[in-house]
Design goal:
Layout: H1 2-18, H2 29-50, H3 52-60, H4 65-73, H5 77-89, H6 97-114
Helix pairs in contact: 2-4, 2-5
Keywords: Membrane, Signal, Transmembrane, Transmembrane helix
Signal peptide: 1-24
Protein name: PA2779 family protein
């Protein structure tokens, strides 16, 4: 009986040593939404890095695409959100040169139509 009791205690202490404690808590909707938003931001950044023109620009600047992906993956949620906000706020056309050229063309076209200048041969003056 004593031998059985000793084996029982040894096995009980062994099993108790491998047990892990767990805690359960309520998760708010805001926490779930924040986690989902952070995941979506990371997906958008990863998709942007997959584009061929972005990879070509990275290579021109001496950055390997795999290094850039690793750095984006290492960002915290706040840093990833700030980076995604910066990417979203940048102009799509680059430095705005095309917009400036279109604006100048429209101004010259209007002044030609009003008869103040004669730049384009295809316009007729109102005067």
């Amino acid at each position: 009986m004593k031998k059985f009791f000793v084996h029982f205690l040894l096995s009980a202490f062994t099993v108790m040593g491998f047990q892990q404690s767990a805690q359960a808590a309520m998760v708010s909707t805001a926490q779930v939404a924040a986690a989902d938003a952070a995941a979506q931001v990371r997906v958008r950044l990863a998709a942007a890095l997959e584009r061929a023109d972005v990879q070509a620009a990275l290579e021109r600047n001496g950055i390997a695409a795999t290094d850039a992906k690793a750095r984006v993956a290492a960002l915290s949620d706040e840093e990833a959100a700030a980076l995604a906000q910066q990417v979203d706020s940048l102009p799509a056309g680059g430095d705005g040169l095309v917009g400036a050229l279109v604006f100048i063309f429209v101004v010259l076209l209007v002044t030609d139509i009003l008869g103040l200048t004669k730049v384009f041969p295809f316009t007729r003056s109102v005067r």
